[in-house]
Amino acid sequence: ELKVEQNPLFLSMQEGKNYxxxxxxxxxxxxxxxxxxxxxxxxxxxxxxLSNGAVKQEGRLMASLDTKARLSTLHITAAVHxxxxxxxxxxxxxxxxxxxxxxxxxxxxxx
Amino acid sequence: EAQVTQNPRYLIxxxxxxxxxxxxxxxxxxxxxxxxxxxxxxxxxxYYSMNVEVTDKGDVPEGYKVSRKExxxxxxxxxxxxxxxxxxxxxxxxxxxxxTGEGPNYGYTFGSGTRxxxx
Lengths: 111, 119
Prior knowledge:
The structure holds two protein chains of two kinds.
Chain A: E1 4-7, E2 10-14, E3 19-25, E4 29-37, E5 43-49, E6 55-58, E7 61-66, E8 71-76, E9 85-93, E10 99-101, E11 105-110
Parallel strand pairs in A: 2-11
Antiparallel strand pairs in A: 1-3, 3-8, 4-5, 4-9, 6-7, 7-8, 9-10, 9-11
Chain B: E1 4-7, E2 10-13, E3 19-25, E4 31-38, E5 42-51, E6 54-57, E7 65-66, E8 76-78, E9 87-94, E10 109-110, E11 114-118
Parallel strand pairs in B: 2-11
Antiparallel strand pairs in B: 1-3, 3-8, 4-5, 4-9, 5-6, 7-8, 9-10, 9-11
């Protein structure tokens, strides 16, 4: 059974600082997604990572994938308040269609 | 606009009163799925469907039913709701297979969510 674990679950940080959210998964994956969710809203797709060593960047967010370590990271550079949200990683089992989510990381960025 | 439409957005009901949450997509996606979201647990899959008349249980199917009579619709049915089904529900859809790229033809598209409270 595929398990996906995020770390940390809660993160409070100052504007301008850098930080990283980690996503570990337990079995071979076909692809990995990062989503953002604002309170009471739906999920917004940020990145899809398909292969070992994949790196994608959008603004202050950068995601990477290490399939050998079964680890993805979401790095936040020079955080701003607008990035406050809950971030989820989600993994698709190789050869399947099911999307399995981590617990989510609630990120709060303080001025 | 390519989208997944869920209704209602908010629902308060009483224990035991049957209800249906509707989900419709306009992208001709084969795969549709229901998730519930609870604090600290992320999103957990309830049921999924690979195509018309093909449905299967996810991780937390107890107390729920689904049907897939048409490709675009995938309603979630609670025959006898209980307070432990109070949650935020999301419907999602995708094309089958491993596809790269951006936009509604790639990845998973989520509905706006249904906040259900059972008292």
